[in-house]
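EI: anyone free to look at a 149-residue chain?
SC: sure, send it
EI:
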Amino acid sequence: MDKVRVLFVCTFFGGRARIAELYARKMGLEHIDVYSSGFESGTLGGLPVQVMEEAGFEFSTAPLTTVFDRYASNETFDYVITLCHEASTEKCPVFRGSVDMIYGEQAQILGWSVLDFLALKGVPDEKLDGARKIRDRIKAEVYEFLSQI
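SC: here you go
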């Protein structure tokens, strides 16, 4: 049996996507391969790293493979899940409209509206609390999704 290939995507450097990948890997399902990508290549840092280390994960800050690099490598996926906040100016709706062309028509496309860490406002403690909520929301979405496939 071929493994189910899942790609988590968010804008910029892929912090939310990497969090989803880490939680999916933690479940350790043998029939699933998970990956994460962003729209840009860059070093991750700040709140995503802090809240994931708090949760017991080693959070790599190395740049992710971008969605464009995956396209250039002819990668295909069974599921492409975007984690962009729908009420923002993030480009995930445009990206989702192109998934068939980019990753093959067999990909099922899902969108989880998750606030970006960069949108958090307030003093540092308020931002940290917001980052924890983002992390926990992603965790819940991942576990719910994986329990259904």
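EI: Residues 4-148 form a domain with the Rossmann fold fold (CATH 3.40.50.2300).
SC: 👍
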